[in-house]
Structure formats: structure tokens, C-alpha cells
């Protein structure tokens, strides 16, 4: 840990040391979670669950240490503190308030309900049987509502906003309503327009595999290097669900390989590399302190989507990448031309499944889930009506109706696993990515041309100095204003979609 | 955790739950240590060290919880406890006594001194410069002596025996002196005799590589399967120094590959598999409790050496393994005949380096270190005289003199890293392995013939039911008496060496 500026025995320095220990524990948990998802043999699951539960109890004990309140009160009066220390105190108070808001028996009941519901969900999804999930999901929802209410009471927020606030500090549903209503008006028309345009394009020949895993991995590693990932402080591995995890200065990403299709693993690696660059770029001098952490999920998702959607589905990138891919995969022919790859990576389709959706249709999936979870937490809609409401929303927003609940409201693990309030951050992230990339390219007009030469340094330098290095120094809105001159709105995202899918085809 | 037999709120059940939590933490540490040695990127070392230090502090806090003493006193009066519970109490008291014996500031000073000394040692070894190591090793020795004295005071042992006791519970230097003196009398003569015999053998042609890592790994995995390793509860990976580690039901082994020589990686895998079978075979019903743990280092080493030396350097095994190796490595010709491989695996040479030594000369390296560390801890010899004493011992025991200290007293990390009292367990393990294998083969005369068919089940079943399943139920001596009918002596080991290297060549 770096020494704080403040005197050795001040309340601030006590907090600094204490949260340094919390971070050391969180780093251990991060690596064990990574191991759980990448390396752990099946038979170890029971023992590992006990270790994780114990570490969570120890962490909670440290986060709710009774001395924290006194240290905070005293440190907040300390006139000797600098801007970073003050921002750190704000973050310490924020995370401490959240951690102490929920009674331990509610936390325990919720984690038991979640474990049971996740298990039930796996079978219910396979069977497309929402009724089988209803009792355990009702229990999870009830407890999430109670958790939201407990946090909301402390924070002066509605239950939903209090849950949202865990993933998106400072996020408010009134602001999201306005942004998402704007998009919901815009996207159905755009989607129809884009599909009509794409229907007129000639079909490209297929990219024919197999593409061996070792070659795909080598290509992924090469691209991670191109993007600026630091392999001295991270790794690339395989997991069922790709993620970016690990610990401070140990930022590990994963992907999964399909030998018939290298393109999705590659874009997955690029996406996770965007997350990882953010994690690797957080302020070293504050590492271990709450102020050093990533700002929130919308900014985090903006970093992955900026790389995946803004930078790496650009014609500039694909002109650079096409010969690299061709060489790595041993491909040849027209399907491997930059323009053909660009068409492949910008193909739009109305589908049922969120994780398979493209840049244009993805927000509809998110807006649907956001509206439904908000209504469910507010008790404005019976959970039993979810399948009907889901299908109606899909029809309105996307113009398709899932033939069953496996392809509908049972597809995501978020609700069974207690992740209520998370969904909107995906599309907030996409919008933020567009706004940041636009600001970056205005600030340095060489960013896109450099990407065309395989040089990401101008882009990454801008991101480092405008986003990564601040950690949680600024609140989300202020960070965006500092970087782009204004708060988040939908206009740049909308303009980006029109430009890419209509104007510049 | 399995529920104890005793009533839910009894002192025993409190201890049971408490040590279950200690185990959950130890399992987390085990996986993080494995990660540290196999997966961790270089840049994470600093953060990881902080996480490990914190977890050690938390573990020490749990192990010295003031309630343990009261629970122990009360539980030891509990007439309702069964034999396993009583054995568990004995182990709880043992580990608790050791853990509380050393004042925290001494523990901390020692770990600081060790960190510094290990770093100095790396350079000093490279430079063959003992003088450069002397100051920091003096400090480590001084603190080890103090730790030994503190533990010895509580246990009624000399400082050296108290250190030895950490690795070899119940081990006493008087007993080891007798065993090692016996060997030291026997081995120099045998070595000369064997070398004379082997000098008359015709030279075998070399096994010519390269042997690709992937093929070596596949062969290692195949042999692990043959030996009975459970891949549902473990993994095989790569590290600089091979080890068996991980956690309960997650027993991970490592090896390192040399593309010019597959034989050493393979025997390394077999050695670690012997350790792993012990770990995987510990009593499931007691898992998490001190009584479930492996008995001590000499028994542990006996399990690896029984596989590596007794079973897998036998002619029976090599007759089975030769065609398997040939096929896996794509080899052909006389060098790949079972008899040639047997000669290769039983070649004896007087060398300077312990880890490269063969079955006959290895004990001499250990006896030398044991005698020296005992004298150093007892302050019966100045540390500055170590190089001279080392070289004199090598001359007496092995008939060779190291040309420098890199090939002499600087070769091992044990002393710089605070592992005083560990060395004798290697040779106690080799002797124990011989005595156990002999007893097993007498109890079931099909064990060796079955190995010749690639069937390790008869051997492993004997080990499981006579050693593994007992964990720490018996003390070492009692375990050996229970399994072989008598305490450890050197006779079976000596007979084994004479038979393999003189009588049956």
C-alpha cells in the first residue's frame, strides 16, 4: 500500500490501512473466483464454496468494523487532506453505508434463496418451464425488494434505485427512463431501415474452418498486445462464460473457443481486453483504496464496448486486422477481405437472445428487461405475468415473439442470481462508449487512422488519461462531463448507428 | 463439514466448527499458493504477497482464538466422545500448542529475515559466494533457534527437536541419529560396490529427443490414471519446482518438462502422484479437522517414494511401462527396451547435487545436512565454518568434494527460507517407503505382479486402508506399527538396496 499523505496515526491513515486490508482480502477472493471459473476440478466445488463463504463473512466483518464510523467522522473534519483523500473518504462512506444498510439475516436469507433459485433456473430454462421457476424466483424477488428497501431507506432512494446504485453509483431510474424512451422511439424504425438495406447486399461466402483453438488463442493474444494489454499483470484463459476478473495488478480475462467460428471468440477477447485495460489503468498510487476502483458498471461496459463496437468494428480496424486474421487462421479468398469481414461484423438480425444480439438490436433487449425489473421491484406487476409481459415487450420493441420461455424470459441468469438493477448498465455503457469515442476522436484526429495502422496508442492514451487514471475520483456524471464536455445523452449513440449502418455502408 | 458425533453446543462441536473454518481458510491459502507458483503473472507479486500475509494473520488469529483453550479443557473431559473425536482433540491440542508457543513479534521478525535471506541467497548461489549470504543467514539461524527454543520450552524438547516436530510430529533426533548412523556406516561401502558393478555394464544407447511437451504431458496424465489419481479432485500443471499442493478434495500436482529428456518429468509426476494419492485418500468424514490431515512429512515422503522408487523403478513396472513410453514418445530401438530403461532408472553416480541424486547416494546428502543443521541450531558450530564442514562431510559420506559453494552448501533453499528440521524427513521417508512396500507385498503377493500388468489397484488399496484413511488418527510410530508390525528401522531399506543394486542386477 502507498502511504497516505496524512499523519501516521490520523483517522484517515487508520482508514487507509484498514481498507488496504479489505483490498488484500478482495484480491484473494478475486483470484479464487477466477480459479473457480477456469481451473477448479469439479470435485472441489463443495470445499470451495465453504472457503468463499468464509472469506465473504470475513470481508463483511472488516467492511462493517465499528471503528469505521468514528474514523470517517474524524477524517471528514481533517483539513489537511488533499483532493484524492477527500474523494477516497467519499467512496469509503458510500461503500460503508451500503454494506451496513442490510441486516445480516436478510443477506443470509438472500444468498440461500439465490443458490436455490439458480439451481432451479438451470432446469427450468432447459425445460422452458417458467411455472417451475416461479416459487423460487418469487422468493428472490421478495428479498431483493427488501434489500432495496433497506438500502433505499439509508440512501433516500426508491428500492429499485437503491439496487441500481450498487452497480451504477448515482444512477437514477428517472434519468434512465428518459434515455431509454428516446432510444425506444428511435430503434424500431432504424432496425427496419437497416434490415432493408442489408437485405439488398449480396451474400458473402462463409469463413470455412475448422479453426484450431491454439491458433485462435495466438490470434487473441496478438490482438490483446495490439490493444495495449499488459501481460505482466494478467492472463488469458478459458471459461464457459467469458469475463474479466482477478485482482489488482492481476487482471485476468477469459474467452471460449468454437472451432467452427473464430470471429466470436476474437471479438470476445477484444471486449474483455477493453474491460482489462480499464482495470490495468486504475491509479497505482491509490491501489487498494476504494477511490482506486472502477467507477461503475456503465463506465466499465463503456470501456469494453468502446473497443469491441466503436474501435474494432470500424472499417479502419478491419482493414488492419483482415490480413492478420487471414494469416493466423490460414484463410484465403473473398470471405477474408476487409470489407467482407466488416459486413460480417455489422450484420443485423432480430433475434430472441440478448447475448447473441448485434449493436442495433441489443438495446431493445435491455430496455425490455429494465422496464420489467423496475415494475417487479415496485410491485407494479405480478411476477406470474412476466412471460406475457416479456413477449408483448419483444413484439413492441423488436417485432418478434419468442416461441417459448427458454428463448424468452428464462434466458438470463441475472434475476435468479439476484442481479436486479444490473441490466440497464449494458446500454448505458453502449451509449457512453459512443460519446467517449466521439470525444476522443475529436480531441485527437489521428486516433482512427492510427487504428487503421494497428496502432492503438493514441486511443488508449486518451482513455488512460481521461477515464482509467481517475478510478472513482469523479462520480460518473462528472467523469463524463470532464471527458466529453457534457452528461450522457443518446444523440451520439444514435448518430453513430445511423452513420455506420445507413450512411457509410 | 461433517457434523461431529457430539451434541450441537458441546465444547467439542464448537471446536469442530471453529477448525472447519480454519480449514476453509487454509484451503483458500493452498489454492492461492498454487496459483502463485503456476499461474500468477509476474507483476502481481506485490499484491499477492499482501493478500497472503493478511490471510496468514487471519489464520493465526483463528488458531490462537482465546476460546480454544477453554473448549479443549472442557472437551477433553467429555466422556461421550469416540476414538476419532479423541484423536482429533489430541491433534487440536498439538497444533494449538505449537501455534501459541511463539510470540507474534518473533514470527514477524522471522518472516522478514526469511524474505531478505531468500533474495540474497538467489544471488549468492549464482555467484557461489557464501560470504555474501552469511549475514542474512546468521539472522535467520538466530531467529530459528529462538523459535525452536520457544516451542521447545512448551513441548519439553530441545530447540532442534522442536523445529523437527513441526514437520515430523513426535520425531526425535536421538532416534534419527541411530537410524542415520546405521545408514552412514552401510552406504559408502554399498556405493563403491554398486559403482564397480555398474562400471562393468555395457553402455545403453541414448533416448533421443526432442520429446514435445504435449506428448510428455499426455504420458504423465496416462500414468497418473494408471496409479489411481482422481482427476475430478485435482489437476496437473507446470511450475519451476514440482510440488503437490492445493486444497481438500482439490489436490494439484505440478512438474516441469525438458524436451531433451522425458524420463525425469515422468518420474517427477509419479513422485507427486504418490503424494497426491495420500492427500486424496485422507478420511472424508473428518475433512476439515486436524485429525484428517496427513500424519507428517516422513509418511508423506514415504508415499511419493514408495511410488517413485519402490513401485516404479521395479522391473515389473518398467516391463509394463516401456511400451507405453515408447508409444507416447514415438521411440524405437534397444534404448526403449524395459531392461535398458530399468538400467537408466537405477543408475548410480556420486554427485554434488541432492535433487539430482539417485536412491543410493541421496541419503548421504540428507545425513550431511541433518548433522550440520543440528549442530548449527545447538550453536555447536559457527555458521562461518559451514562451507568447510560441508565439504568435509561430502568427502566422508560420498567421496567427492564440491569445487565451489554453489555446488556445495549454497545449493538448497531450505535454510535461507527457514526450513530447519525438514531435511531428515526425506530419508526417513525413503526408509519408511521400503518398510511399507515390503509389508504390502507380503500382505498381498499379487501387488508386484499386478504392477507388471499396469494394475496399481492392489497396491493403492493397501495404502488406502493402511495409511491414507487414517489421516492423523495414529501418531507416526503407531501408524507404522499398525501397518508393518514394527517401528521404523533401516533393515528393510538396506535389504532393498542390496537386492535391487547387487543381488538382482
Question: Could you give the count of β-strands of chain A?
Answer: 3
Low-pLDDT runs of chain A: none
Mean pLDDT of chain A: 96
In quaternary terms, these chains amount to homodimer
Tell me the Rg of chain A in angstroms: 23 Å
Please report the number of helical segments of chain A. 20
Global geometry of chain A: globular
Straight-line distance between termini of chain A? 51 Å
Q: How would you describe what is shown here?
A:
Chains A, B: Its EC number is 3.4.17.19. Chains A, B: Broad specificity carboxypetidase that releases amino acids sequentially from the C-terminus, including neutral, aromatic, polar and basic residues. The structure is a homodimer of 505-residue chains. In chain A, helix 1 (11-38) runs antiparallel to helix 2 (45-63), helix 3 (67-75) packs antiparallel against helix 4 and helix 6 (130-155) packs across helix 7. Chain A has a domain at 1-101. The mean pLDDT of chain A is 96. A 3-stranded mixed β-sheet of chain A has the order 1-3-2. Chain A has 20 helices and 3 strands. The first copy, chain A, is mostly helical and 505 residues long. The A-B interface holds A 1, 20-21, 24-25, 27-28, 31-32, 35, 39-44, 46-48, 50-51, 53-55, 58, 230-235, 247-250, 287-288 and B 1, 20-21, 24-25, 27-28, 31-32, 35, 39-44, 46-48, 50-51, 53-55, 58, 230-235, 247-250, 287.
Keywords:
homodimer; 505 residues; mainly alpha; 20 helices; 3% strand; Peptidase_M32_Taq (chains A, B); protease (chains A, B); EC 3.4.17.19 (chains A, B); metal-binding (chains A, B); metal ion binding (chains A, B)
